[in-house]
Amino acid sequence: MKRFRFLAVLLAAVMVFTAGCGTDIDDPAAGKKEKDIDIEGADWKTWAAYIVLDWHGPDETRKYYLDISNDGGFVRIIEDKESYSLVSTCDFSEGGVKDWDTVENSIAFEDADADGYDDLSVTDMDGGHLINSIFLYDPETGEFTYSGELSGYTAGQWGNNALTYDSWQDAYKDVVMLWEDDHADDELHGYKLIYLNDDDIPELALIGTDDWTVCDVYTFGDGIAYRIYEGDNLDVDGRGIHYFERSGILASSEWMSGIGGYVMTSPFDENPYFVLLEYELVTGGETKTHIKFVEPSGDYYEQEYPDEEYDLSELPEKENIEAALGISDLEDMIRINSEDGLMDHDEIVNALN
Hints:
single chain; alpha+beta; Lipocalin; 2 domains; 7-stranded antiparallel β-sheet; 5 helices
């Protein structure tokens, strides 16, 4: 799905900054973005082009050149691009930039901590979720330092299409059309309608094989189909993605050489990567079972069973886990990246008509 052009994200990111940080990045006082050189094919991702922004302090304004690294996921703030005099390096994205459109259009200097000095704000998109990173300016050193307190996932999840739809069927048809265009030549590809959360609108799962299995899951809300899961390299080392019907919970799995387990999260939570449950089973050699899950109180329950092999659905804590996570039965886990129930293009289009 890398060919999606996240048009709605560009608008959504501006809305998030305006509401969350109190500065409109289109306000002339905040500094306009401009391409430093006008060369056909020049790209924000290269060292040949910069984003130029005005930085404001209590008594001065400076012009900084912001150089974004793709692979490393960091921004270099440069005072003089001719001498490449480095002011600060800000690591903001573990594993590299996820979505260039979002970063290019959602990077700004703004006073995030209201101390009179502009700070650096960068937003990236990961799996359909906006991640805002704030780097606070230190007037004593002149450097920008990451703030875990002010950074994090932004409220809301945004779609991959600028259009809004009157029905989930029409929205999913467009997603299917793009997926079919990308994966029609894959050895295996297809579609599923699943009920992940507890409403009457199904989620759309899309499966393909780019070298290894890839899988996206979309949901529908506010007239937009938006991605809530993006997986690749599935089926490698026993990796898989599963769900419990109408629970809102996804379970990632990995099994290799007698060691494996599940990690459960909810893509509908404000922090979609918050771990609700970890389960590990080790067989052969040193045998053990380890379980950790969030109780209704918000505290973690953790237990390890040396020399014991418990399947997930055979754990002594089974009923407590089901009650805490809202799962009807741990035995009812369904694998998404499988051929079971997989529809081809004609079948999914007929189902959506």
